[in-house]
From TrEMBL:
Lineage: superkingdom: Bacteria
Family matches, as InterPro entries: P-loop_NTPase (IPR027417)
UniProt protein name: Shikimate kinase
SUPFAM superfamilies: P-loop containing nucleoside triphosphate hydrolases (SSF52540)
UniProt source species: Shouchella lehensis G1
Length: 187
């Protein structure tokens, strides 16, 4: 019975680096969203079929992890709050863990667009996420998505018992991970 932490927020907000720090502190496994995206997109591009395969691949991993003796999985996700399909997806993956007796924690990160544009070019991000190495493309995608979708929740929108929202514009990943650990009493 493993737990699930859904670590969500806009692109380049720091989900992966916070997830790495949190994994180190808690012993949970990090499953960042680009682990599956970067396995499929280089072959098929960014198509509907790519997302179908990515989501199927993730679902299989979630099902296996939920039944395992892992302490937990930290999953990073860009959640478009204006899209019902994203709400449904989060409910679906949450149910996979809850049905096995696991708990689901929701951690929302937010940072200024200016800071996210800086982070989008970071060496660590580019090393870990091959599809982000085309800086012009990824910067345009980041800006376009920020205009066309709502990537952070509204006040009170997420009625979850295990939820925290953190503005990490000026925080280091270790500080954010420590705050998450303190809020949820992870050890």
């Amino acid at each position: 019975m493993a737990d699930l932490i859904i670590l969500f927020g806009p692109q380049a907000v720091g989900k992966m680096t916070v997830g790495e720090a949190l994994a180190e502190k808690t012993g949970m496994k990090l499953f960042h969203n680009h682990m599956t995206i970067d396995a499929v997109a280089p072959v098929l591009g960014f198509t509907d079929e790519t997302w179908r395969i990515v989501n199927q691949f993730r679902r299989e991993i979630f099902q296996a992890a939920a039944k395992s003796d892992l302490k937990g999985v930290i999953f990073t996700y860009v959640w478009a709050f204006d899209l019902q399909k994203d709400w449904d997806y989060v409910a679906d993956i949450s149910a996979i863990f809850e049905e096995q007796g696991g708990r689901v924690y929701f951690v929302e990160l937010e940072a200024s667009l200016e800071e996210r544009l800086v982070r989008n070019k970071s060496e660590h991000r580019l090393e870990k996420k091959p599809t982000k190495r085309d800086i012009v493309f990824s910067e345009n995608e980041l800006k376009e998505t920020a205009e066309s979708h709502r990537l952070n929740s509204k006040e009170g929108e997420l009625n979850k018992k295990q939820y925290v929202r953190i503005n990490n514009t000026s925080l280091y990943p270790n500080e954010v991970a420590q705050h998450i650990q303190d809020v949820f009493h992870f050890h």
